[in-house]
């Protein structure tokens, strides 16, 4: 062996040790990245879940061939690893934390809010479906639902997500606009008596009005919604499996209506997914993350996808969904809907799948 060969032979183990140290360092840094938080949430395609097994209508009949499916988005706090992943993956997005949770809101508050919104969406879906099927539905306005409280403002110290404000200074607040009108007559520094319900128990508190951030008005610092009692003539059970938010409203409405109208197979044998909030008048509203939901529906084999046509231009949910469908080259038909009647009319116009 020459002197040069011997020298090279002796140096190889040191090079391997250097590579091993580099690999170990990279592994350590990669591991640490899972524990380094960021100020973002990461969203990704979730799943498409059949509603038939989740929803049961008293005396109703379920389709034996086709199905309605709600679609979900996977969301979680982004550590450094997920932050990097979202910058290189085509189907992951970052959202600033303040757009997901309010300042001062903890994870328990967020879950409570999302579940409260889902519960409200379920009740509205029941009302719309029963009315669509020709049944009488009784809707009673109950008050102002607290969907969040703003950090540093009076309500934060007293009210919780899910509370229902029923009056201000003794004047009934049956809906959000009543609360806003009552406070509009006041000035900063005025005290008001707030009567509210929490878990069915009535309570009262005195709060001092303050100027609201980025507003010329005064208030107590709540994110309001309308709380109503809805009475339907048949029992409906919905096992939402911990899913939160309002975006399943349209699809739950269609499933309930389909079970009620036993004379028609509304699905015609197709696998139908979609998304959109639902209002008492049947209007379908905009939702977030529709690109992820299109991918989830396609992964589940959906053939039709209903998307809210919330605006008449390229910014609508429908146009977003259509763009995603084209990008992933799906054969799934994306259908725009402005109200639940649009979805029903479209399905009634379809030929049965196996005809």
UniProtKB/TrEMBL annotation:
It is an enzyme of class 3 (hydrolase). Keywords: Hydrolase, Membrane, Protease, Serine protease, Transmembrane, Transmembrane helix. It catalyses: Hydrolysis of proteins in presence of ATP. It comes from the Bacteria. GO terms for molecular function: ATP binding; ATP-dependent peptidase activity; serine-type endopeptidase activity. Its EC number is 3.4.21.53. Residues 114-181 form the PDZ domain. Pfam families: Lon_C (PF05362), PDZ_2 (PF13180). The active site is at 247, 293. Residues 243-350 form the Lon proteolytic domain. PROSITE patterns: LON_PROTEOLYTIC, PDZ. The chain crosses the membrane at residues 21-42. One of its GO terms (biological process) is protein catabolic process. PANTHER family: ATP DEPENDENT LON PROTEASE FAMILY MEMBER. Belongs to the peptidase S16 family. This is endopeptidase La. It comes from Brevibacillus reuszeri.
